[in-house]
Write a structure and sequence with these properties.
Elements lengths: L8 E4 L5 H12 L3 E6 L2 H15 L4 E4 L5 H15 L4 E4 L14 H29 L2 E6 L12 H21 L4 E8 L5 H14 L3 H10 L9 H11 L11 E4 L8
Parallel strand pairs: 1-2, 1-4, 2-3, 4-5, 5-6, 6-7
Helix pairs in contact: 1-2, 1-8, 3-4, 4-5, 6-7
């Protein structure tokens, strides 16, 4: 399949590790001009070098705290200066703290809003002028399997990840006539540092060893295992490519069949 990504300008948020890095690497393999971003210069440099070692091409990178509107604006300006504009945006952010409703006050709710929803809004707003000028664009929002089924003790994530779906569905109607497609993809249990940390929290809560707790979770997945970041990235890169010409406004979960909701 021709993804028609060669030479296209791609921004991937929170791409120094985990799902973001896996997506960025696959975009590089498809010939795109990729701009990595995260809050850590050292982690970005390491990610860029790893991608270069595996693909032969070193992507550009820029430090960006996605909670800061000025830094998002600078990120898009950098992509425009380096690559002439923006064709594809992959929105991504780390997860907010785990816990139930009683664990959080206004500060935590505000922080999760800024990290997991407002950052996506700002990034989309920043890239739309370039996409409109180019006559097309692709936006993919990385969320969580909670867009289909709430995850226990992740109330902050459950709330703001589903808000992303509402925004994306609305924007799909507003932007479809301009050939700008937007979709949301939710990872289930993908083998990342974030999932490992959540598994340790769950194990401690249940009084189980980490391995015991993980075995329980894998038993609930029809495929009997966690997914890999590389498997997840394939869905991101298809939806966020120009091989995708008609899928927009959709919410897709990559979870090995674990989610029970339709």
């Amino acid at each position: 399949m021709n993804t028609d990504l060669k030479g296209k300008s791609v921004i991937v948020l929170a791409s120094s590790k985990g799902l973001g890095k896996a997506a960025a690497k696959l975009y590089v393999e498809e010939g795109a001009q990729v701009l990595l971003s995260s809050r850590s210069e050292s982690e970005l440099e390491n990610a860029a070098l790893e991608i270069e070692e595996e693909t032969g091409t070193k992507p550009a990178h820029v430090v960006c705290d996605i909670r800061n509107a000025d830094e998002i604006k600078k990120l898009v300006e950098t992509a425009t200066a380096l690559h002439g504009g923006v064709d594809v945006l992959v929105n991504n952010a780390g997860g907010p703290p785990a816990g139930g409703f009683d664990a959080f006050g206004d500060e935590e709710w505000q922080g999760a809003f800024e990290l997991n929803l407002l950052s996506f809004v700002r990034a989309i707003r920043a890239v739309l002028p370039s996409m409109r000028e180019r006559g097309a664009g692709r936006i993919v929002n990385i969320a969580s399997s909670s867009i289909k089924e709430p995850v226990e003790r992740l109330i902050l994530s459950n709330t703001f990840r589903t808000a992303i779906v509402g925004m994306s569905k609305t924007l799909a109607k507003e932007l479809g006539g301009e050939n700008i497609l937007i979709n949301t993809v939710g990872p289930g249990r993908i083998a990342t540092d974030r999932v490992e940390a959540l598994d340790h929290i769950r194990a401690a809560k249940l009084g189980l060893s980490y391995d015991e707790a993980k075995e329980q979770l894998m038993d609930a997945i029809p495929m009997g295992r966690y997914g890999t970041p590389e498997e997840f990235a394939r869905t991101i890169v298809f939806l966020g490519s120009f091989a995708n010409t008609y899928v927009t406004g959709q919410s897709i979960v990559v979870d090995g069949g674990a989610t029970k909701a339709y």
